[in-house]
Amino acid sequence: MTDVTATPTRQPSALALGIHRARYEIRTYFRSPDQVFFTFLFPVFMLALFSTIFSGMTQFGPGVPDTTAVQYYLPGMLAAGLLLSGTQNLASDIAVERFDGTLKRLGGTPLPAISYFIGKFGQVLVTALLQAAAVLVTGVLLGATLPSEPEKWLTFAWVFLLGLATCALLGIALSAVPRSGKSATAVVLPIVLVLQFISGVYIAFTLIPEWLQSVASAFPLKWMAQGMRSVFLPDDFRALETGGEWNLGGVAIALVAWLVVGLVITRLTFRWNRRAA
After folding, report:
1. Shortest CA distance to 87 belongs to which of 261, 275, 268?
2. DSSP string, 35-76
3. With contact defined as beta carbons under 8 Å apart, do 111 and 12 qualify?
4. pLDDT for 198-207, tens place per residue?
5. Backbone angles phi, psi at 202, to 5 degrees
6. Are 265 and 166 in contact (CB under 8 A)?
7. Most exposed among 72, 82, 135, 206, judged by the fewest C-beta atoms under 10 Å?
Protein backbone atom coordinates (compact mmCIF):
# COMPACT_ATOMS: atom_id res chain seq x y z
CA MET A 1 0.00 0.00 0.00
CA THR A 2 1.29 3.45 -0.89
CA ASP A 3 1.22 6.06 1.82
CA VAL A 4 -0.24 9.33 0.71
CA THR A 5 1.00 12.31 2.70
CA ALA A 6 -1.13 15.42 2.48
CA THR A 7 0.84 18.49 1.49
CA PRO A 8 0.01 21.36 3.83
CA THR A 9 -1.53 24.35 2.14
CA ARG A 10 0.76 27.35 2.24
CA GLN A 11 -1.00 30.32 3.80
CA PRO A 12 -0.54 33.75 2.19
CA SER A 13 1.74 36.10 4.07
CA ALA A 14 0.38 39.09 5.98
CA LEU A 15 1.90 41.35 3.32
CA ALA A 16 0.21 39.44 0.48
CA LEU A 17 -3.12 39.60 2.28
CA GLY A 18 -2.58 43.31 2.90
CA ILE A 19 -1.88 44.01 -0.78
CA HIS A 20 -4.99 42.06 -1.75
CA ARG A 21 -6.96 44.05 0.81
CA ALA A 22 -5.54 47.31 -0.57
CA ARG A 23 -6.88 46.46 -4.04
CA TYR A 24 -10.32 45.94 -2.54
CA GLU A 25 -10.09 49.21 -0.57
CA ILE A 26 -9.09 51.18 -3.68
CA ARG A 27 -11.97 49.78 -5.73
CA THR A 28 -14.43 50.51 -2.94
CA TYR A 29 -13.07 54.05 -2.52
CA PHE A 30 -13.61 55.04 -6.15
CA ARG A 31 -17.10 53.53 -6.18
CA SER A 32 -18.22 56.04 -3.53
CA PRO A 33 -19.01 59.39 -5.26
CA ASP A 34 -19.22 61.45 -2.05
CA GLN A 35 -15.91 60.08 -0.80
CA VAL A 36 -14.23 60.75 -4.14
CA PHE A 37 -15.39 64.37 -4.15
CA PHE A 38 -14.86 65.34 -0.52
CA THR A 39 -11.45 63.68 -0.09
CA PHE A 40 -10.04 63.20 -3.60
CA LEU A 41 -11.33 66.04 -5.78
CA PHE A 42 -11.94 68.64 -3.07
CA PRO A 43 -8.36 70.09 -3.09
CA VAL A 44 -8.44 70.24 -6.89
CA PHE A 45 -11.78 72.07 -6.81
CA MET A 46 -10.63 74.49 -4.10
CA LEU A 47 -7.35 75.24 -5.92
CA ALA A 48 -9.26 76.10 -9.08
CA LEU A 49 -11.79 78.15 -7.10
CA PHE A 50 -9.30 80.22 -5.09
CA SER A 51 -7.05 80.71 -8.13
CA THR A 52 -10.01 82.10 -10.03
CA ILE A 53 -11.38 84.29 -7.22
CA PHE A 54 -7.97 85.85 -6.49
CA SER A 55 -6.67 85.81 -10.06
CA GLY A 56 -6.08 89.58 -9.97
CA MET A 57 -4.11 89.46 -6.72
CA THR A 58 -0.31 89.24 -6.88
CA GLN A 59 0.86 90.44 -3.44
CA PHE A 60 0.40 87.94 -0.61
CA GLY A 61 2.55 89.49 2.07
CA PRO A 62 4.83 92.40 2.92
CA GLY A 63 8.36 92.29 1.58
CA VAL A 64 7.85 89.27 -0.69
CA PRO A 65 7.84 89.22 -4.50
CA ASP A 66 4.66 89.19 -6.53
CA THR A 67 3.27 85.77 -7.34
CA THR A 68 0.12 84.35 -8.84
CA ALA A 69 -2.78 83.11 -6.74
CA VAL A 70 -2.45 79.58 -8.09
CA GLN A 71 1.24 79.50 -7.13
CA TYR A 72 0.45 80.72 -3.63
CA TYR A 73 -2.41 78.32 -2.93
CA LEU A 74 -0.85 75.23 -4.56
CA PRO A 75 1.26 74.10 -1.55
CA GLY A 76 -1.61 74.59 0.90
CA MET A 77 -3.95 72.46 -1.20
CA LEU A 78 -1.34 69.71 -1.44
CA ALA A 79 -1.03 69.71 2.36
CA ALA A 80 -4.82 69.75 2.80
CA GLY A 81 -5.04 66.78 0.46
CA LEU A 82 -2.87 64.75 2.84
CA LEU A 83 -5.19 65.61 5.73
CA LEU A 84 -8.27 64.69 3.72
CA SER A 85 -6.85 61.45 2.27
CA GLY A 86 -5.36 60.30 5.56
CA THR A 87 -7.27 61.69 8.51
CA GLN A 88 -10.76 62.45 7.19
CA ASN A 89 -10.96 59.42 4.91
CA LEU A 90 -9.77 56.81 7.42
CA ALA A 91 -11.49 58.31 10.47
CA SER A 92 -14.90 58.25 8.76
CA ASP A 93 -14.36 54.99 6.91
CA ILE A 94 -13.17 52.93 9.89
CA ALA A 95 -15.83 54.40 12.18
CA VAL A 96 -18.55 53.33 9.73
CA GLU A 97 -16.97 49.88 9.38
CA ARG A 98 -16.91 49.49 13.14
CA PHE A 99 -20.59 50.31 13.59
CA ASP A 100 -21.98 48.47 10.53
CA GLY A 101 -20.31 45.24 11.67
CA THR A 102 -17.60 45.07 9.00
CA LEU A 103 -14.76 45.12 11.53
CA LYS A 104 -16.43 42.46 13.66
CA ARG A 105 -16.79 40.17 10.63
CA LEU A 106 -13.18 40.77 9.60
CA GLY A 107 -12.08 40.05 13.16
CA GLY A 108 -13.69 36.61 12.85
CA THR A 109 -11.69 35.76 9.72
CA PRO A 110 -8.03 34.71 9.40
CA LEU A 111 -7.19 38.24 8.22
CA PRO A 112 -4.48 39.61 10.57
CA ALA A 113 -4.91 43.14 11.88
CA ILE A 114 -1.61 44.10 10.24
CA SER A 115 -3.01 43.05 6.83
CA TYR A 116 -6.09 45.20 7.43
CA PHE A 117 -3.89 48.20 8.16
CA ILE A 118 -1.65 47.49 5.16
CA GLY A 119 -4.79 47.55 3.04
CA LYS A 120 -5.87 50.90 4.50
CA PHE A 121 -2.40 52.44 4.15
CA GLY A 122 -2.11 51.10 0.60
CA GLN A 123 -5.41 52.70 -0.36
CA VAL A 124 -4.43 56.00 1.24
CA LEU A 125 -1.02 56.02 -0.46
CA VAL A 126 -2.38 55.29 -3.94
CA THR A 127 -5.26 57.78 -3.72
CA ALA A 128 -3.03 60.48 -2.18
CA LEU A 129 -0.45 60.07 -4.97
CA LEU A 130 -3.18 60.33 -7.61
CA GLN A 131 -4.68 63.31 -5.81
CA ALA A 132 -1.32 65.12 -5.60
CA ALA A 133 -0.76 64.49 -9.31
CA ALA A 134 -4.22 65.91 -10.08
CA VAL A 135 -3.54 69.01 -7.94
CA LEU A 136 -0.14 69.57 -9.61
CA VAL A 137 -1.57 69.14 -13.11
CA THR A 138 -4.41 71.54 -12.28
CA GLY A 139 -1.89 74.02 -10.92
CA VAL A 140 0.25 73.86 -14.04
CA LEU A 141 -2.80 74.26 -16.28
CA LEU A 142 -3.75 77.37 -14.30
CA GLY A 143 -0.25 78.85 -14.60
CA ALA A 144 1.75 77.53 -11.64
CA THR A 145 5.48 76.89 -12.03
CA LEU A 146 6.94 73.69 -10.62
CA PRO A 147 10.43 73.66 -9.08
CA SER A 148 13.35 72.36 -11.15
CA GLU A 149 15.80 71.74 -8.31
CA PRO A 150 16.11 68.06 -7.24
CA GLU A 151 16.47 69.05 -3.59
CA LYS A 152 13.05 70.74 -3.72
CA TRP A 153 11.45 67.51 -4.94
CA LEU A 154 13.32 65.55 -2.26
CA THR A 155 11.77 67.86 0.34
CA PHE A 156 8.38 67.36 -1.28
CA ALA A 157 8.83 63.56 -1.11
CA TRP A 158 9.64 63.34 2.59
CA VAL A 159 7.05 65.92 3.65
CA PHE A 160 4.46 64.06 1.55
CA LEU A 161 5.27 60.57 2.85
CA LEU A 162 5.83 61.56 6.49
CA GLY A 163 2.76 63.79 6.48
CA LEU A 164 0.60 61.09 4.90
CA ALA A 165 1.74 58.43 7.39
CA THR A 166 1.05 60.83 10.27
CA CYS A 167 -2.40 61.76 8.97
CA ALA A 168 -3.30 58.11 8.34
CA LEU A 169 -2.42 57.08 11.90
CA LEU A 170 -4.30 60.07 13.31
CA GLY A 171 -7.29 59.09 11.16
CA ILE A 172 -7.29 55.59 12.63
CA ALA A 173 -6.98 57.05 16.12
CA LEU A 174 -9.79 59.56 15.48
CA SER A 175 -12.08 56.78 14.23
CA ALA A 176 -12.58 55.73 17.87
CA VAL A 177 -14.29 59.04 18.74
CA PRO A 178 -17.68 58.87 16.87
CA ARG A 179 -20.43 57.20 18.89
CA SER A 180 -22.15 55.85 15.77
CA GLY A 181 -21.47 55.36 12.08
CA LYS A 182 -23.94 58.10 11.19
CA SER A 183 -22.14 60.65 13.37
CA ALA A 184 -18.69 59.92 11.92
CA THR A 185 -18.77 62.66 9.30
CA ALA A 186 -20.32 65.15 11.73
CA VAL A 187 -17.46 64.54 14.18
CA VAL A 188 -14.56 64.46 11.74
CA LEU A 189 -15.48 67.15 9.18
CA PRO A 190 -15.53 70.18 11.55
CA ILE A 191 -12.10 69.24 12.92
CA VAL A 192 -10.65 68.98 9.43
CA LEU A 193 -12.24 72.23 8.24
CA VAL A 194 -11.12 74.27 11.26
CA LEU A 195 -7.55 73.02 10.91
CA GLN A 196 -7.49 74.03 7.24
CA PHE A 197 -8.63 77.58 8.02
CA ILE A 198 -6.17 78.19 10.86
CA SER A 199 -3.16 76.44 9.27
CA GLY A 200 -2.55 78.74 6.30
CA VAL A 201 -4.33 76.69 3.65
CA TYR A 202 -7.03 79.20 2.67
CA ILE A 203 -5.81 82.28 4.55
CA ALA A 204 -2.22 83.54 4.66
CA PHE A 205 -0.77 82.29 7.94
CA THR A 206 0.54 85.75 8.88
CA LEU A 207 -3.00 87.17 8.64
CA ILE A 208 -4.27 84.78 11.30
CA PRO A 209 -4.30 86.09 14.91
CA GLU A 210 -1.19 85.06 16.81
CA TRP A 211 -3.10 82.97 19.34
CA LEU A 212 -4.65 80.97 16.50
CA GLN A 213 -1.20 80.59 14.93
CA SER A 214 -0.08 79.06 18.22
CA VAL A 215 -3.06 76.69 18.19
CA ALA A 216 -2.35 75.68 14.58
CA SER A 217 1.31 75.09 15.41
CA ALA A 218 0.23 72.36 17.82
CA PHE A 219 -1.20 70.29 14.93
CA PRO A 220 0.48 68.67 11.92
CA LEU A 221 -1.35 70.45 9.07
CA LYS A 222 0.41 73.77 9.73
CA TRP A 223 3.79 72.01 9.45
CA MET A 224 2.85 70.10 6.30
CA ALA A 225 1.69 73.32 4.65
CA GLN A 226 4.91 75.05 5.70
CA GLY A 227 7.01 72.25 4.25
CA MET A 228 5.07 72.38 0.99
CA ARG A 229 5.45 76.17 0.79
CA SER A 230 9.22 75.74 1.03
CA VAL A 231 9.03 73.64 -2.13
CA PHE A 232 6.71 75.68 -4.34
CA LEU A 233 7.19 79.29 -3.21
CA PRO A 234 10.28 81.50 -3.69
CA ASP A 235 12.70 81.53 -0.76
CA ASP A 236 11.72 85.15 -0.01
CA PHE A 237 8.39 83.83 1.29
CA ARG A 238 10.12 82.24 4.27
CA ALA A 239 10.01 85.72 5.83
CA LEU A 240 6.25 85.17 6.29
CA GLU A 241 6.78 82.03 8.37
CA THR A 242 7.16 81.94 12.14
CA GLY A 243 10.76 82.92 12.88
CA GLY A 244 11.32 84.03 9.29
CA GLU A 245 12.57 80.56 8.23
CA TRP A 246 11.16 77.48 6.54
CA ASN A 247 12.38 75.49 9.57
CA LEU A 248 12.27 72.11 7.84
CA GLY A 249 13.88 70.54 10.89
CA GLY A 250 10.92 71.71 12.94
CA VAL A 251 8.56 70.33 10.28
CA ALA A 252 10.18 66.90 10.56
CA ILE A 253 10.15 66.92 14.37
CA ALA A 254 6.49 67.97 14.56
CA LEU A 255 5.37 65.31 12.09
CA VAL A 256 7.39 62.55 13.74
CA ALA A 257 5.98 63.56 17.14
CA TRP A 258 2.42 63.35 15.83
CA LEU A 259 3.25 60.07 14.08
CA VAL A 260 4.23 58.59 17.45
CA VAL A 261 1.11 60.05 19.11
CA GLY A 262 -1.11 58.55 16.41
CA LEU A 263 0.63 55.17 16.70
CA VAL A 264 0.23 55.05 20.48
CA ILE A 265 -3.45 56.10 20.41
CA THR A 266 -4.18 53.61 17.63
CA ARG A 267 -2.52 50.82 19.59
CA LEU A 268 -4.56 51.67 22.69
CA THR A 269 -7.96 52.23 21.08
CA PHE A 270 -8.32 50.05 17.98
CA ARG A 271 -10.69 47.12 18.41
CA TRP A 272 -12.41 44.83 15.93
CA ASN A 273 -15.63 45.14 17.94
CA ARG A 274 -17.36 48.43 18.68
CA ARG A 275 -17.26 49.63 22.23
CA ALA A 276 -20.29 49.26 24.43
CA ALA A 277 -22.63 52.27 24.49
Report:
1. 261
2. HIIIIIIHHHHHHHHHHHHTTT----STTS----HHHHHHHH
3. no
4. 998 988 888 8
5. -100, -25
6. no
7. 206
